[in-house]
Amino acid sequence: MMVTNAASGPSAPEGRGCVSRAPGLPEGFARTFTSRHVDVGDVRLHAVTGGEGPALLLHAGWPQAWYAWRLLMPALARDFRVVALDPRGVGESGKPVDGYDTGTLASDAVALMAALGHERFSMVGHDVGMWVGYALAADHPGRIDRLAVAEAAIPGLSPSPPLHSSRETNDRLWHFAFNRLSGLNEDLVRGREDLFFGHQFATKAAKPLPDHAVRHYVDTLAEDPAALRSSFEFYRALDTTVAQNERRRARRLELPVLAIGGGENLGEGVGATMRLAADDVETAVIPGCGHYPAEETPDEMLTVLRSFLMPDGLSRPPGGPGAR
């Protein structure tokens, strides 16, 4: 496996999603964090790394990228070696035609961490990252110490809502069926990325995301047809993911799990989902937060994560890596 830093080598990340070009990063961000590419099997993955301490993998959801964690990363880097991942199909990572089931995505993440020298790590996953976190903990239990997940139901684990569900449920989940279409959705969304993805952010956030962040996500998807296609592939692979999750349910997770819900979105539902699969589940509900806790309520999100990831309360003193 080849690992390449942002500052050197022919494969150094140069797109809008690398640290040197991403907009609105916290002051001094680039002094701590570096973009790099790692070749893993059939795909080249992009990760942003920095900090010192035990390894911590951050995996964002649809339709976001590593950038979703930017407000938390400097503080987390005081105590952890942070690895914020663009999974296959996302941001500066490669966009192969297949491999978007959660078993493959989890294997990608494990291989990435191994290539970076991390045989064991903790993980935080949001949305699709929650799907992947469950798969990783179930398929690779010897690799992960603690798992925090946020704001998702898990297909094949969570009960499926009826086709004719309430308006509220339909407004929250209609994109699942739409995103699984074969090709038609690209035709309908292309040239209307502002409308489609902008609607997702506007309706699922209780506190609006900054305009520059929404613009960054939308422009990344609009500028590359492969990025738009790949954004739907996580959903087109759901038949495979559901079958995998039905098998995973046979063995319950034993590691500590933190389930985080936005008080204005899934709330306690995240914990209810994880208790279907795990024995040691702690729940945190963030008041006034919608679907994007790392961006809507970063201070509150950081508080619950640090309490869970560092249960002994130990922390490096101020002024360490990532301190601001």
Automatic annotation (TrEMBL):
<dbReference type="GO" id="GO:0016787">
    <property type="term" value="F:hydrolase activity"/>
</dbReference>
<keyword id="KW-0378">Hydrolase</keyword>
<feature type="domain" description="AB hydrolase-1">
    <location>
        <begin position="54"/>
        <end position="296"/>
    </location>
</feature>
<dbReference type="InterPro" id="IPR000073">
    <property type="entry name" value="AB_hydrolase_1"/>
</dbReference>
<dbReference type="InterPro" id="IPR029058">
    <property type="entry name" value="AB_hydrolase_fold"/>
</dbReference>
<feature type="region of interest" description="Disordered">
    <location>
        <begin position="1"/>
        <end position="20"/>
    </location>
</feature>
<dbReference type="Pfam" id="PF00561">
    <property type="entry name" value="Abhydrolase_1"/>
</dbReference>
<protein>
    <submittedName>
        <fullName>Alpha/beta hydrolase</fullName>
    </submittedName>
</protein>
